[in-house]
Design goal:
By secondary structure, this protein is α+β, with helices and mostly antiparallel strands. It contains 11 helices and 10 strands. α4 crosses α7 (231-267) and α7 (231-267) runs parallel beside α9. The protein starts with 6 loop residues before the first helix and ends with a helix.
């Protein structure tokens, strides 16, 4: 079994790492403090192909493999979690379903602009009373001639205040429950579309999460993605692939926390010697690295399965479950190693600790991942 990266994959990893260290890392504290999403940086990373890595060349992307996508997200998250969230959503949650279910006209209109980073995509499924229960959404869409009228509200919409196109799910047949959900491509300029309140979040504070309000929002029928009633299938397929990206994000963030912990442990002195010489610190670092490598193995395996066209089963859920819980343990240890300094907002590990907490929640909670894994094992 060959676990080595290709020369091209190594080049992608190293190029993104250099960009994040030189162009982005010096700005992260300021961006988080101001809760400002850096569209100017996104344009630059878009020019590198990172905004549409899985999109084929004919539609404006580099057409790379899932392993390369994972490597990119790792390097971005190692420095700046909020940007990795934006890139994960626009790449996998929006472009992948658009590529799979969209018409040529829709791809021409939106996919090329998304892949280049000209615009960002946003995924709108969650509602105040419908999170893990995706089939329980209440937003509706009614056909009115050549348009649909969408009504309802979406919450926790990543990229919501900066996106150029929104993939919104609403019920065209409420009586059919999950089978009555349909997907739509919605522009923020459409009549009846409004951005509501911004979430005041614990972490990833420069990644905008907003409420979207739909009041008779007029969406051309040509902007329906797939057929009526196909929406839940589209949403779940997007989330399945997106879980690999979330796992990659967790690995990158954990790697950043480990790097900071090793550096600090070597510099900090107590009782006349470097704290890295104390067994308690050594064991924490050893555990952090071991868990990190285990998560990386699960994630790369899921990415390889997807690239090879093999049945993924619950591989993405296993990667997301383990990696998301791993990063919270690693971030906790990173703060512990730093001591009181780690509790200060002057350190990167304090931000990483807050950023990590949500990773066990979005794109399917840990509990949902365990349900998926158990069903796969039990054949239900």
């Amino acid at each position: 079994m060959d676990f080595s990266l290709t020369d091209h994959q190594k080049l992608i990893r190293d190029t993104v790492r250099q960009f994040m260290e030189t162009e982005v890392h010096p700005l992260v504290k300021e961006l988080e403090r101001e809760e400002r999403f850096p569209l100017e940086i996104l344009k630059k990373i878009g020019e590198m192909g990172c905004c549409g890595m899985l999109t084929p060349e004919e539609w404006g992307g580099p057409g790379l493999d899932t392993v390369s996508f994972v490597l990119m997200l790792e390097e971005v998250a190692r420095v700046y979690t909020a940007m990795s969230t934006a890139l994960g959503v626009t790449n996998s949650a929006v472009q992948t379903p658009l590529l799979q279910f969209g018409t040529d006209t829709q791809k021409q209109k939106y996919l090329k602009r998304l892949a280049s980073g000209e615009i960002l995509g946003s995924f709108c499924l969650t509602e105040a009373a419908a999170g893990s229960d995706a089939a329980g959404i209440q937003a509706t869409a009614k056909r009115d001639g050549e348009i649909y009228r969408l009504n309802g509200a979406k919450t926790w919409v990543t990229n919501g205040s900066v996106a150029g196109v929104f993939l919104i799910f609403a019920k065209t047949n409420p009586e059919a429950h999950g089978k009555g959900i349909t997907a739509f491509l919605v522009e923020p300029s459409f009549q009846g579309f409004k951005i509501g309140r911004h979430e005041d979040k614990m972490g990833q504070r420069s990644s905008p999460s907003v409420e979207i309000l739909l009041n008779d929002c007029e969406v051309p029928a040509t902007n329906r993605l797939g057929e009526e009633g196909q929406g839940l299938k589209i949403a779940l397929s997007a989330l399945d692939g997106g879980r690999i990206g979330i796992a990659a994000q967790a690995i990158g963030l954990a790697q950043g926390a480990l790097d900071e912990s090793i550096k600090y442990a070597k510099q900090r002195r107590a009782f006349g010697k470097s704290v890295s010489e104390f067994q308690a610190i050594q064991w924490m670092i050893a555990d952090m690295q071991t868990e990190l490598e285990a998560a990386r193995g699960l994630t790369y395996y899921a990415a390889w399965l997807r690239d090879s066209g093999k049945r993924m089963g619950s591989a993405a859920s296993k990667a997301k479950l383990y990696a998301s819980e791993m990063v919270n343990r690693v971030a906790y240890k990173a703060v512990q190693i730093h001591g009181s300094v780690g509790y200060s907002r002057e350190t990167d590990v304090e931000r990483m600790y807050r950023d990590a907490r949500v990773i066990t929640i979005y794109e399917g909670t840990s509990e949902v991942q365990r349900m998926i894994i158990a069903r796969d094992l039990l054949g239900k």
